[in-house]
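Handover notes (outgoing to incoming on-call)

Open items:
1. Reverse transcriptase (RNA-dependent DNA polymerase): sequence verified, structure written out, both below. Nothing else pending on this one.
2. Nothing else urgent.
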Amino acid sequence: MQLRLAAGNQIIQADQQGTLDARTTNGVHFRCPAIPVEDLQADIILGLPWLIEQQAVIDLTRGCIHIGREQRQTIHFCRPTPSKTAPAPPLDCSTIPMGNGDWTDDQRRELLRALQEFPELFEEGGAVATTATVRHTIRLKDETPVRVPQYRYTPEKKRIIAEQVERMLAANVIRPSHSSYSSPVVIVPKKNGEPRFCVDFRRLNDRTHDEASPLPPIHEALRDLGAASVFSTLDLRNGYWQVELDENSKPLTAFTTPDGAAYEFQVMPFGLKGAPTTFQKLMVQDVLVGHINNFAIAYLHDIIIFSHTPEEHRRHLRLVFERLSQHGLRLNWNKCKFASNSLDYLGHMVTSTGNHPQTAHVSAITNAEVPKRTRAVPGHCQLAPRLHPGMLRVTGPADRPINHEETLQVDPGG
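Reverse transcriptase (RNA-dependent DNA polymerase) structure tokens:
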């Protein structure tokens, strides 16, 4: 069989014809005649007969092709080009995000050498890196599809959604979907005021089985720091997105955008029931096994490393970096902080003398309005025992069964 190339008059010889048995990225299976040809520049060239048979419409503006006689689908052949993986930020002693530890120049240089041994941990740009250690599976109580109508969006929110979708497509976070599931998109502000793209998975979560391993209370985890005097905090880049979804779970995360397009997550999204447990197990049972509570604590996408001396701390950092590299995880350079002599974390201030509540949190309770109703007393005192030593002695009467006829007597002096 002779084939004439589209460019020029060159003719190539094809000696055989077979059948291509393939599946699209959207999961649609098809079979069609195919001619193997050596040295093609592309993986496959779609022939005119197949395009006609599939009633194909090529949309060059959006970089996609619409195909399918019975089940119509859209396949993107051109995405916003992901930036190639950028190298780690230039490392020198002046660029290390140091904490408040009083380290000498020699100690800083030793820390720099430890960081330079693992440049892959701080690579930026391109597709989101995912670990091969674990995949997240959504376990449903029943198979009834979840379909929640879209919310109403302002023109500004529509613009934000479109921008975020393009970015997530470029990073391989999402892909086009033809799922029977659909959850609505919500835009919520971050702490710094910037918009955050989220999907409201509450209805899906209602249909999802509970996980057996709840997260540990952070104040309990911080007790294991003992008399440590050197602390570093590491932030895992993109958090949950570093965990891939099980293939059968991806369609369950589908969402619809204001323009009517549908997408589904390829990685574990935020707001999904079971996602915190999966990530916590990954860090504790796989990535940092053997290091947890010895010199490392993992709480979701944060890692705390604690040591007694700078020399010991550098060794501990190397051990953690090795594990992160082995499991293909990435760190957010801008949110890491190295070599502090105190740890300010989730309302706690940890130093070599122990774990202390932050002044602002103590003041919030101390200056709170005195409860006027009996039912409000237990809730008012709930946090106090952890913040004020001996507080249980003072609030003990509030733990008795509520008697609305009883006058509650509390001695402020203990």
